[in-house]
Amino acid sequence: MAAKAGLKTRYVKEWLCAIACGGLIEVDESGEKFWIAEETKDVLSGPNNEGLVLVHLMMPILGSIYGDISKVFEKNGPLAIEGAEKDRIQNGAKNVEFICQDAKNLNLAWKDKFDLIFIFDACHDQTRPDLCMKEIHRVLKPDGLFAMVEVDSSGNCYVEKTTKGPLAAMLYANSLFHCLPVGANTEDALALGSMWGVERGQNLLKESGFSEVKVEKTLFFPFNVLYTAKK
Ligand SMILES: C[S@@+](CC[C@H](N)C(=O)[O-])C[C@H]1O[C@@H](n2cnc3c(N)ncnc32)[C@H](O)[C@@H]1O
């Protein structure tokens, strides 16, 4: 399908997962084979396709929030680290430091340094989460703990559709419009997207040298899981 349309296969796959979970097209149990049901063909291209016109009319309304987001682009617009530093000073916290680094190239002077490293929902956005995990392994103390909150997914869109319903469509759409483009942005990117799946997450950790890899539900974040792994 991607070849016929002249599109990137990885993006087409994530899009198919999103609309299959939303019930617009069908998917088989493998999560890999997609097709359009007869009755849906009529809605898409037949005389009853007014619904689609309405969806297109929604676009400018949804797009209006970009005015707020564009503030971040302004010369003196909000910057994350500056804001965090302001909060830190206001709260009198003396044992906190904010450092901006590429997670796959951490400070070379750091070796066997940290007892605990924690990532909140920021591994799947990386182009090379595998290299980030290897760096974390390097800078942890022997016996140190890595804890990673990530999206709870099976990695199979059929399973996601049948267990999560319309929420699965939203999760795949988030991935399609943000996580996948960000995580596909270099020549060597793995382009995993946020729905990479728990099994893949566990394998990535093991391949990065971690042991005792565990996954459990998170108490306050129903769409996430917590991975823990020992150096
Ligand atoms: C979904 S956001 C999560 C941010 C934050 N943890 C939160 O919950 O609000 C993903 C973050 O990963 C960061 N990121 C992506 N690639 C990175 C890299 N190679 N090194 C460090 N951070 C990276 C992005 O800048 C972004 O802030």
Helix run count: 10
Content of β-strand:
15-25%
* Distance separating the two termini: 43 Å
Strand order of the largest sheet: 3-4-6-5
* Main sheet properties: 4 strands, mixed
The helix-and-strand class reads alpha+beta
Write a short abstract of this structure.
The protein contains ten helices and six strands; from the N terminus they run H-H-E-E-H-H-H-H-E-H-E-H-H-H-E-E. The protein has 231 residues and is an alpha+beta fold.
Topology of helices and strands:
Blueprint: H1 2-5, H2 9-21, E1 26-27, E2 34-35, H3 38-45, H4 50-63, H5 66-69, H6 80-91, E3 114-120, H7 129-139, E4 140-151, H8 157-164, H9 166-182, H10 198-207, E5 211-217, E6 224-230
Helix pairs in contact: 2-8, 2-9, 8-9
The structure holds S-adenosylmethionine (SAM).
Q: Can you describe this structure?
A:
The protein is of the alpha+beta class and 231 residues long. Helix content is 44%, strand content 16%. The chain has ten helices and six strands, in the order H-H-E-E-H-H-H-H-E-H-E-H-H-H-E-E. The chain has helices at 2-5, 9-21, 38-45, 50-63, 66-69, 80-91, 129-139, 157-164, 166-182, 198-207; strands at 26-27, 34-35, 114-120, 140-151, 211-217, 224-230. Strands 3-4-6-5 form a four-stranded mixed beta sheet. Helix 2 packs parallel to helix 8 (157-164), helix 2 (9-21) runs antiparallel to helix 9 and helix 8 (157-164) packs across helix 9 (166-182). The mean pLDDT is 89. The site of S-adenosylmethionine has 8 residues, from loops.
